[in-house]
Amino acid sequence: MKFQWLCLGLALIILTGCGNSPVGQSSEGGSNTAQPQARVLLIGLDGTRSAGIQQANTPNLDALIAEGFVDYDAITNDVSLSGPGWASMLSGVWCDKHGVVDNDLTWANSRFDEYPHVLFYAEQQRPQINSASVSHWAPINSEIACADERGGECVLDHVMSVATDIEVRDEVVRLLRDEDPHFLFMQFDDIDHAGHGDLTDGGTDIGGFCPHPGGDPSGGNQGGVCSALDYNANYISTIELTDGYVGEIMAALKARPNYAEENWLVLSSPDHGGAGTVKNQHGFPTAQERRTFFISSGQAARPFPDAQVKIVDVAATALHHLGITIDPAWGLDGRPVAVVDAPDYVDDATPSCFNPAVFLPDIGTL
Ligand SMILES: [Zn+2]
Fold this sequence. Notes:
It is built from 13 helices and 7 strands.
């Protein structure tokens, strides 16, 4: 409320877009006076294809999109695996810098000493920021948030790895109800498991990241290897179940006593797609496996028609909204997108890390 009255007063004087600019937040320079209430909720949806959320009934993601922006043609690394995907989303640099190109071995060679979780910088400059990471896939916390390269020191204030998506939901709801987070990351994993056929592990579920009942329409970036026979209803139903968790989380967010003043930016993206090469696998550099989506929602969200959103842009966008000035010396590849006062976008090429000599796709656990 104070913010609105201040804007009204300023508008009389400077006749410029005060309403578009959170108080004290600047995209360039002087970030330490940033609006302390600016907050970020980052919802990570492992293995969720753009075509999946377009086909499934997802009223809660739809509500986020209605209050913001979506790019259904965002893009991840050319090694379309979870390790490099989450590493790029959370460090803001591509695989050639952070060094993670698989889900297992290359954590040991990662460079999170040089390219840490982005909240390393936020916590360094403004330690009062309360940050949390709640993840079903444990390496996000054990390898990125609390990297060996930093002696296992955790960047975030609250790091919790859990065994189920329900526990992710419950912990995030608890944090929003009982704590005071400024940056809250969560990762849901069951959609990816459904794609691999891991979820109902009776040996008969062959999975598939195939959301089209009649098979993928031919042509364009909706293609891939999914015929009508490959349609995986379980993939759709798991997306819809997870969308319900998003709804419960958003209800908890909006029930916060000071929600109206907290200026939450809600971001949501997956780490990779699927069904480009083998219907229940991913990891190859095909369009279907690299294609992701990016949602930016809330009063600070803005349209972004300029370019394809890249997975490395997520971190820069979060930092920008928190009012952290991005130092060029950090070497971030991403840039703020679809958020108020974002600087002009530079559409850099993406590097390649795909080496067929050593590459192994993610085939799930069956
Ligand atoms: Zn996977």
